[in-house]
Amino acid sequence: MKRIFAKFLVFVIILGLAAGFSQDVRTSYADEISSGKSSDNTLIIRARDCTAVYNGLIQGEGDTTYADAADIAEKVYVEGLRSGDQLVKIDLFSQGDKPADYPIYVSGAGILYGAGNPKDSYDIVYQDGVFSIKRKDLIVTTGSASGKYDGKPLTNSDVSLSGLVNGETAFVKATGSQTNAGSSDNTYSIDWETADSNCYNLIEKLGRLVVDPLEATIAVDSASKIFGDSDPDFTGTVEGLLKEGDLGEVKFVRKGDDEAPGTYTGVLTASYENNGNYRVSEKKGDFTITGFTVTFRANGGSGSMKAATDVGGDYKLPACLFTAPDGRMFDCWEVYGKEYAERDTITVTGDTAVTAKWKKTDPGHVHDLSLVEAKEATCTEEGNEAYYTCSGCGKWFEDKSALVEITDKSSVIIKALGHKWDKGVVTKEATYTAEGIRTYTCERDSSHTKTEKIPKKERRSDDDDDDGGDGTVWTQAGSWSLDASGWHCLENGVPVRNDWRYLPYNGVSYWYFFDGNGLMKTGWLERGGSRYYLWPFSDGWMGRMVTGRQQIEGKWYYFEPAAGKDQGHLYTDTTTPDGYRVGADGARMP
What we know:
single chain, mainly beta, five-stranded mixed sheet, about 0% helix
């Protein structure tokens, strides 16, 4: 800070007659100190700092004299003025035209001494202030645009520039472009022409260029085969791609390796490369393995036995329910010329006829009864109520005295219960080089299990690691990000909030929902007047929106499976497409 001592010779006239003002003689403050002439009557006058905004013109005090007490108090700080004395005049000078800091010079102090105050001069220290010219805000505004992915750059040339001063000129042009699905700022370039970029502070109000994924549909054809045959070549159709190969080579495959006869719903699916430019809806196909029919021949007996259908591989022969001819009793079953006892196991490789064989009974027959103890049905085997059989005639009785004959033998047979599979656990995680395994356990018998393959993970061709090394797994449209609170989806580094996203993970794409904090939701979700269920279990696709028939906490529900705006919504108070009535809460009614 520049400091100047000015020594004033003050002529004092008695108050009431005239006022005395000081005259200054400028000397160097450094010289005053080095010569020892600095006195205790130091008066410090410092200019107050002030600011202005660039306007293209010369600004500042110029060379200005202030003699009004209020103006002087506004312009300078004063320290060391004795009581009764007054500062009644001051000169200021400051000037500048570009954004910078300029000195405010202060000089020319005039002092009116009070009555009775010493008449000697003050040692005055002038301290410069700072006059700052700030940059002018210059606002650049670009337009926004949105559309579906079409392989062409999305742009918007709308742009404006506001805030130039004093006739200065500059030219601005919108340069933003977004081709792939995603979003980015509509950027710009600027030619400053007559304006000086150092005089302006750019304020950007940039529009967004948003490209939504294009809808594509993969429909997998349902297929079938005969038990024991190899799987056929699976087929399907792909619609909605701009050009063939945008999803790589689309392959149609079967999920799981079950070979028992029956229909497996939704196991035919598609394998393809993820492409963030498409929102792929997949309609899965069903696979039916057709078994064989086992029929029963009475061979002279009476009554009927229901044929067993969709049989393949091992088959346990049932008890004979035919009524024996007079004077005869059941001996065995005959299959392809071989004899088998009841409940023996045969191998079925085609349509099979099972024939009852009878043997003669003793005319003087006395029942020789044996107790067949009650047996509970299991997942795979029939059970039965307790009853008695005669080893001589083969008849069945309810009591050990043979008083009540059981003529309908099926009435004491309890059908096998079938498996009740749990939700399954991942027993082998999928990697980028190998499939994983999910294992299901029967809730009725934990010794019964089945497995299902988990597809291999897929990575981008330029990704050398399993993930980003920071809890982030990259996709083409955005990124999965894991922190202490859970999973998030980032698009250009910004979390998705209060919205759905159709995202790939572990090679399979599903719908996921992210709440107001950007956290992936699980469990029940109510949105837009519909209810959805987001898979809450850690199986490689936690948080995915479920579709079709689902068992949740012991109750069956049905969620819209078809792709579209209603996909995943819960059916309520109606009859579902699979033929069941559901109540207001969506649960299947008895």
